[in-house]
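Q: Could you fold this chain for me?
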Amino acid sequence: MTTTDPVANLAALIRCPSVTPAEGGALSLLDSLLSPLGFAVERVMATEAGTPDVENLYARLGTEGLHLMFAGHTDVVPVGDEAAWSHPPFSAEIAGGEMYGRGAVDMKGGIACFVAAIARHIEKHGKPQGSVSFLITGDEEGPSINGTSKLLEWAAAKGETWDACVVGEPTNPDQLGDMIKIGRRGSLSGRITVHGVQGHAAYPHLADNPIRGLLQLTHALMHPAFDHGTDDFQPSNLEVTTVDTGNAATNVIPARATAAFNIRFNDSWTAESLRAEIIRRLDAAAADGELRPDRTPVKYELVWADRPSHVFLTRNNALISSLSDAVEAVTGKEPKLSTTGGTSDARFIKDYCPVVEFGLVGQTMHMVDERVAVADLETLTRIYETFIERWFAHADGK
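A: Sure. Below is the predicted structure, expressed as structure tokens.
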């Protein structure tokens, strides 16, 4: 196959059924694309008790000079109802100018385009005056335990350092060139359990309904607002994501009630200061008897989820301006610099080097009939190719 053709690259990648945590042939395919270009390719198996083993890939071209990393993932989410797809989800069929397939935009498309971009650069100019690496995981859509974080640790332990990174996630909301992500809000999750006394719904004085207490606590988490946003980030926002009693009977007051929550927070907070604020709110609400008159304070337990994601903002001018200028040069649009959306593996990379995200239009990611405009693959490849040239030319100035 022609490595400089992003359409062919993506079709081959989509045909690898790499649903998390399966490698599905996707990393082997990347090895076959990158090795002939001169990349030294290594496959790294990461393991941890209680989680699936995950295979990852690290490939580097060059051994010295400025070092640019491209990061991404070949794993994809399940296809859902396969019968609902207009075209088989691993067929990479093209119809109406669009390629259909799981991972088309999230994010095999970005990988296919960056491979094509570096292949074109080598064809036109020879190897870059520095180093380029691919850091590709198979665990971004899964627990994200045996993926990018462990691959970074492995690479750093063997002496790898990087000057900048582009993550190829689908960052554009409507059209290619809309948006570059230069940071992400943090993410913190927890679960509250309120203990009560089970009893008959007709005799509430003989029981203690934990739902009343849970409502007091969750209301305090959602109101008032944690903040009103900052210059670089939208307001922090907490959502209660599950509520459960384990009780199927309508005439029984349950013995306990639980609620899970997640908050996406801006740079007004750290994970530590946010935990302290949440505990302060819960303790205050537990003593408020509005829904539990003449009762003792609510008895609750709070368990924090492992591995919070920390807020970050990239301020590296060489990286941001090189990519912004490349986008504008190819599309004629000045991209918005944004910190919106959820989390990505950039949250791990930011501890090693400046990182931004830019990829395809993400409107169909994770959906039935995930698809990408074929024309966008060529445009994104040209953007990446232009960026590679500009970054190596200007990164010395940082």
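A (continued): Residues 374-394 form the longest helix (21 residues).
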